[in-house]
Specification:
4 helices; 44% helix; single chain; mainly alpha; elongated; 4% strand; two-stranded antiparallel ribbon
């Protein structure tokens, strides 16, 4: 499969690698069919070239740590190269207040573990899913209690019917007497 040609959007591409089995990309739930180098952006989406506009933020970086390095070391290293880019971006800003400039200069790239893809889908969905689980559990408990009550009621009624069939003039299972 490696080094074979493949046509994508009418352009011949050479397969230079294959993602490992189980890798579904950086967005859980919507795996891409193919990964293409960023240099092919214009060819892949001819109607929109996001490389030309500095204010167009569409790129998400997804990388693997170098063996033996920590997340903190990688974050420090990437922020060293990010600072000159920030200075170029600040030069492009027009009519920015001193407070905005100060916030912009304090920007940093924050690295997070990518075990579950990007975004906060897992964090955002956790509370609603826990609530749904709790509600389901409550409904299940109520249903079990209802079934248990039905079985008890059926058992009590069966005993009373059996007693009447053996001894027709037997008093009901429960008798109430009113005292004056």
């Amino acid at each position: 499969m490696l080094n074979q040609a493949m046509i994508v959007n009418g352009h011949a591409l050479t397969i230079v690698g294959v993602a490992p089995k189980g890798f579904s990309g950086e967005t859980p739930g919507s795996p891409p069919d193919v990964f293409v180098p960023i240099s092919m952006k214009k060819e892949m989406t001819p109607d929109w070239d996001g490389l030309k506009d500095r204010k167009d933020a569409w790129v998400t970086l997804f990388a693997r740590l170098k063996p033996g390095s920590s997340l903190e070391q990688a974050q420090t290293a990437i922020n060293i190269t990010y600072q000159p880019q920030l200075q170029q971006d600040i030069a492009l800003l027009t009519k920015a207040s001193p407070d905005t400039l100060k916030k912009y200069q304090a920007k940093k790239i924050v690295l997070k573990p990518g075990d579950y893809g990007r975004g906060q889908l897992r964090d955002q969905g956790r509370k609603p899913l826990q609530l749904l689980f709790a509600m389901t559990l409550l409904v299940l408990l109520i249903a079990c209690a209802n079934v248990a009550n039905l079985q008890l009621d059926a058992g009590t009624g069966a005993r009373a019917r059996k007693r009447r069939s053996v001894w027709p003039s037997a008093p009901p299972a429960f008798s109430w007497s009113a005292s004056s």
